[in-house]
Design brief:
Length: 447
């Protein structure tokens, strides 16, 4: 037995293996591109380290790619066999539940671990991740509020607690608390990408666009070695420029930043879910503003066709559908919908989300692209109140709200347009009249 960086007992062959495990966890928490290489180095020191096996399975699940799930299941089974204490067994069980599609069960398992071990940073961070991708800001916030009092700045990983406190509070609309936590985390480590991201969200939600651009530009020099979260930060910067009508700057950030095909990060995982969301949502927004995006949809549509039937990331599905419909691939869009309907019949946490949110939204994307705006409004209307369950932040969900608003305006349905405008006005501190995707409709509906 050995002790990890947070003082918890782990089964490891040597202190060197335990320190290597800490290095992997730190790489995960700090969004380092070499986290996978760190794991290989740790497992070379101790191939039977239970928490190393858990981390391997976690990394497979974090990709949201169905093809990798069997490897996560195998890792969970191996970790369970080799676990040397109850906490390790609980982690293996949580991973197994996640891999079998019982995300609710995994969340409950991580909460049980945190109740006994509030310094278990891995359980905390995985809970934060999965709760977010189920649209559960309240669950994220309860978790961080439960463990944060047990942490201090002297403990390794404390910055991640602050960063998650920032993002959970931002998504819950507690912007002052969120900003204090995020800025405190960045003061501890200017290269803390999750904290940088959380503050970027606050500045987006409050319409502080010039501050947002400066925040990201100033911190960019600390990002070397970061993972694909870098792309999402560049997407956030592009969102500020989009609001300011600086479309050439947005396209430049698209091509040289968050969808740079020459980037080693893109080449390593060309269809990673978050990168696809960044790209498709920005192209859709640009086209709403009359910007010619050229052939940028094509490579996304190619990847969308290859992933038909993969429904692990429900929020990515409308983005795949945007790419298919933007390139006129109607048959592929129909096959994708059929695969989603099939997946909605299976057990697990995702099925009802597919049924109630992802399928109607994807049907609306297809109808909107085909010019059948009345149908787009009709099929999407029941999902408006529940589509947050697909996950995604307020800033990310915005593209779906814009889709519904655009369809409602083009269908001549002022009541539906008003419904959407009232929803976003009630949640977003910046009034629709000051937001690029909403201003025209807001002026038309008011008069």
């Amino acid at each position: 037995m050995a002790i990890d960086a947070q003082g918890l007992t782990i089964t490891a062959a040597s202190d060197a293996a335990a320190r290597a495990h800490d290095h992997v966890v730190e790489g995960y928490l700090k969004y380092r591109a070499d986290a996978g290489q760190r794991l290989k180095a740790a497992m070379a020191l101790d191939p039977d380290m239970p928490m190393g096996l858990v981390l391997g399975g976690v990394f497979f699940m974090l990709a949201y790619n169905t093809a990798l799930v069997p490897r996560a299941q195998a890792a969970a089974a191996a970790a369970m066999r080799l676990a040397g204490n109850d906490r390790e067994r609980a982690h293996a069980a949580a991973l197994a539940k996640w891999a079998e599609g019982d995300v609710d069960g995994a969340l409950a398992a991580w909460e049980a671990i945190m109740a006994v071990h509030p310094h278990d940073i891995l359980a905390f961070r995985l809970h934060h991740f999965c709760a977010f991708w189920l649209g559960r800001a309240g669950q994220m916030l309860r978790a961080v509020d439960a463990v944060a009092p047990r942490w201090s700045a002297s403990m390794p990983g404390y910055g991640s607690i602050l960063a998650c406190r920032c993002f959970a509070n931002e998504e819950a609309g507690n912007y002052q608390v969120a900003e204090e936590a995020g800025r405190a985390a960045v003061a501890l480590d200017p290269g803390d990408l999750w904290a940088t991201h959380g503050v970027a969200h606050i500045l987006e939600m409050q319409g502080r666009r010039g501050e947002g651009i400066a925040w990201l530009k100033t911190l960019e020099r600390h990002w070397e070695g970061g993972s694909n979260l870098l792309h999402h930060l560049w997407w956030h910067r592009a969102m500020y420029h989009l609001e300011r009508g600086e479309h050439d700057e947005v396209l430049g950030l698209y091509d040289r930043g968050f969808r740079d095909h020459a980037s080693p990060l893109v080449q390593a995982m060309p269809d990673l879910y978050i990168d696809v969301q960044n790209a498709a949502s920005m192209l859709f927004r640009l086209q709403r503003h009359g910007v010619d995006v050229g052939d940028r949809w094509v490579e996304l549509a190619d990847k969308a066709e290859a992933r038909i039937g993969d429904c692990l990331s429900t929020f990515t599905l409308p983005h795949w559908m945007m790419a298919l419909t933007a390139t006129g691939r109607t048959q592929a869009a129909s096959r994708m919908l059929d695969a989603m309907r099939d997946a909605a019949t299976r057990p697990g946490t995702v099925a009802p989300i597919l049924r109630d949110a992802a399928i109607p939204v994807c049907e609306a994307v297809l109808a909107h692209a085909q010019g059948d705006h009345a149908r787009a409004v009709a099929v999407m209307r029941p999902a408006i109140g529940v589509m947050h369950r697909m996950g995604g932040s307020h800033a990310q969900q915005d593209v779906l709200e814009q889709l519904f608003l655009d369809a409602a305006m083009k269908a001549g349905s002022q009541e539906d347009a008003r419904l959407l405008l009232e929803r976003v006005a009630g949640r977003h501190p910046v009034p629709p009249e000051r937001r690029a995707g909403y201003a025209e409709a807001a002026r038309a509906i008011r008069h």
